[in-house]
Write a structure and sequence with these properties.
Length: 152
């Protein structure tokens, strides 16, 4: 029982802290954007038209030493700012502002785990339609996660 509570406590910290500081994502326009020239700092696969959409609900699976914790990460965009929530069986948290740049999101989640609030640092990328990344907090370190966007 003690091991199970410790596992859920650590896992909740990592899952909930999935968003830190976020940048603004480029909104697609009605007109297709002209292709950007390929340079060492601008990969050809990440033109504005190819920028992934983080907005929506994501089913997240966080891996803590082989044990999987499931949660729902919701990301919204309000007035060019990304915000959201993280909900799991062990607690919930909120993201007041996150940054999105190309296919990467970063932010801090203020997570309430059984009445104690902690910061969880979220770093994620969308690759092949899935979000992959890490959630980290002091004392636990980085935990990998994967997420699948819910159909609307």
């Amino acid at each position: 029982m003690k091991h199970t509570l410790r596992f859920f406590f650590l896992l909740a910290f990592l899952v909930i802290g999935s968003q830190t500081t976020f940048s603004q994502e480029t909104k697609p326009t009605d007109k297709p954007a002209p292709p950007k020239p390929t340079t060492p700092t601008t990969p050809a696969t990440l033109t504005p038209a190819a920028t992934p959409d983080f907005v929506g609900k994501w089913d997240i699976e966080l891996d803590y030493q082989g044990n999987i914790l499931k949660a729902v990460l919701t990301i919204n965009k309000e007035e060019n700012k990304f915000k959201g929530t993280l909900n799991s069986d062990v607690g919930e948290g909120s993201i007041s502002e996150a940054t999105v740049k190309e296919n990467t999101i970063e932010g801090i989640i203020k997570f309430n785990l059984y009445g104690q609030v902690t910061d969880i640092q979220l770093k994620g990328k969308i690759e092949d339609g899935k979000m992959k990344g890490t959630m980290a907090t002091a004392g636990i370190g980085e935990l990998p996660f994967t997420g699948t966007k819910q159909k609307q």
